[in-house]
Write a structure and sequence with these properties.
The chain is elongated and about 80 Å long. Helix 4 packs antiparallel against helix 5. The N and C termini lie far apart (58 Å). It has 214 residues and is mainly α.
């Protein structure tokens, strides 16, 4: 079964949580654990020496790098989602509260709607109707482009999410209209998963480091 243009909605709840309080809590917990692991791992390495003695510290360095990557991606996702939400609210307010004279269409009859090949309206007496027709045309083109991207599944990891992200960008008319989709969300989710799974591992390695140190 192919993905539809709205398939990004399947992943939006998880992505939204990563950018809000659950993501912040995950970063804070992992940062505290990594800091403690680096300290105890360093002391264990100094005390015990050898590969085994430095193993907790080495793992702590790797997990800290993953955490930093995820924290940067999460912060960027949060700020871009906020900007996108503000733009959506502004567009909604413009539609629901148009200017006093907006929407008044000239009463001249027999005038056809003229749109060039790029979907640009040629000014005329019925300009408001023309703009409306142009928007409908562009919307249909974006929908077709999104469906094409959704069915183009690449041979890559998490191909379903990758195709859904491309389809969502095409449906919006370009990355400038959905800035929160600029980063590859696959790596954001993978780094979040590693950060989450690493918390019990960090706890275990802290205990090992303390035994080697003390």
């Amino acid at each position: 079964m192919s993905l539809g243009a709205g398939s990004m909605n399947l992943f939006l709840p998880a992505i939204e949580r990563l950018s809000r309080l659950p993501g912040k809590v995950l970063v804070a917990m992992s940062a505290a654990g990594n800091a403690l692991l680096l300290i105890t791992g360093w002391m264990a390495g100094q005390r015990h020496g050898g590969v085994g003695g430095w193993l907790p510290f080495g793992v702590g360095v790797v997990l800290t790098a993953v955490l930093i990557f995820f924290a940067v991606r999460r912060q960027r996702l949060e700020s871009r989602l906020d900007a996108y939400s503000a733009q959506a609210i502004e567009r909604y307010n413009r539609i629901m509260n148009p200017p006093q004279n907006a929407g008044e269409i000239s009463a001249g009859g027999g005038e056809g709607v003229v749109i060039d090949e790029q979907g640009v309206v040629i000014p005329g007496p019925n300009s408001e109707a023309m703009r409306h027709e142009a928007e409908l045309l562009k919307s249909r083109e974006r929908q077709r482009a999104a469906e094409l991207e959704a069915t183009n599944r690449k041979n890559t990891f998490m191909s379903r999410l990758e195709a859904a992200q491309r389809a969502a960008i095409a449906s919006a008319g370009g990355i400038e209209n959905v800035p929160h989709l600029k980063d590859d969300l696959r790596w954001t989710i993978v780094s979040a998963g590693i950060t989450l799974v690493s918390i019990p591992v960090i706890g275990f390695l802290i205990i090992v480091a303390l035994l080697l140190w003390l």
